[in-house]
Amino acid sequence: MNTVHDINTAARTATVDAGVILSSLHEAADDHDLIFPVTFGAKGSAMIGGILSTNAGGSNVLRYGNTRDLVLGIEAVLADGRVVDLMSSLRKDNSGLNLRHLLVGAEGTLGIITKAVLKLAPKPRTYATAMVAVASLDAALALLNRLQDETGGAVEAFEYMPRHYIDVHMARVDGAREPFDAPHDINIMVEVATTTAMDIEDMLQSILADAMERGDVADAVVAQNEAQRRTMWERREAAAELTFWRSPIVDTDVALPLDQVQTFLDRATARAADLDPGCEPFFISHLGDGNVHYSVYPTRADAELHDKIVEAIEDTVEELGGSFSAEHGVGLSKLNTMRRRKDGVALDMMRKMKVTLDPHGILNPGKTIPD
Ligand SMILES: Cc1cc2nc3c(=O)[nH]c(=O)nc-3n(C[C@H](O)[C@H](O)[C@H](O)COP(=O)(O)OP(=O)(O)OC[C@H]3O[C@@H](n4cnc5c(N)ncnc54)[C@H](O)[C@@H]3O)c2cc1C
How much is the pTM? Predict the structure, then answer.
């Protein structure tokens, strides 16, 4: 089940089996000057079924949305063996409940996805990519909004790498280089892209030059060629390796309103330090969509301490109107959190759907939807 059945260039859709690897779909779309915009570090192994089931996000959510926003049709096998055929390529279809959106993000608890129709987007003619240093996340947000306004919403990625991330990258990756001549605390990788003849690189250069003159940006380096662009992306895409090489670790994947990210970081870090003086925070953020992969390395492996730190982080997220699960889903590791934090009525609805569609509990039993 790993066939790309059709790339429809007129309708800009792809019909694919669930076992197609993300990078294979990227290549198939590229052959037609189109893109499937979802992308992240695991693109060489993640399959469409897993991507749909986890409603994966990645670095381009800012412009193209999550996986859910890119699905037009779906086919799935239900627990009783029936096949539900929702393989539509329609952009509008109000014929009853949206079952496609129910299956996407269900983490395999309601059915096994076998096929999908996905939206493709035109391939940008030009990408302009830069590393930018700013003094604060407020300044970063102001820059993001300015870039969106002046480029007509062409920002594809706006990724925050704090100083400690750069330090670990330098220490652990052969040939890694500092993004700037002098070290900065807040390092942003920004990418803008256009399908038009607009000189997007020139536009990015002049916005950044002006922002530097006004003191809004401390430093900026624009990639001059594809190799430099790749180097910037490789630094960002090393996140999983740079996070999980140490243990013990408390790792979270949270979403916050865009203007609350700094408050979250300050509060969560202070609370973790209160619980475990000497613990070290480590984080990276898809800042453009408010998603923070916030981890803490505690000073000792202690299950009780681990839970307390998780609770403190989740309390902070809740206070700020965020979500304890941004793009990695719930699985087993966030089951208790679901039980504690998710709205009770929402949980009740989820349980009823699960019992109705999978009365014998054979689809990913015990995952995602707590008893
Ligand atoms: C290095 C790295 C970087 C990553 N970066 C990001 C990121 O930036 N953003 C992001 O959103 N995610 C990221 N991820 C997570 C990634 O999105 C998921 O790991 C991936 O999409 C899951 O696809 P998979 O084929 O590996 O699925 P699996 O891990 O095999 O499965 C994931 C879940 O989906 C279910 N499932 C799988 N196939 C089907 C199917 N056909 N029907 C129903 N259920 C199914 C499984 O039972 C499981 O619950 C990253 C992962 C790695 C390893």
Answer: 0.93
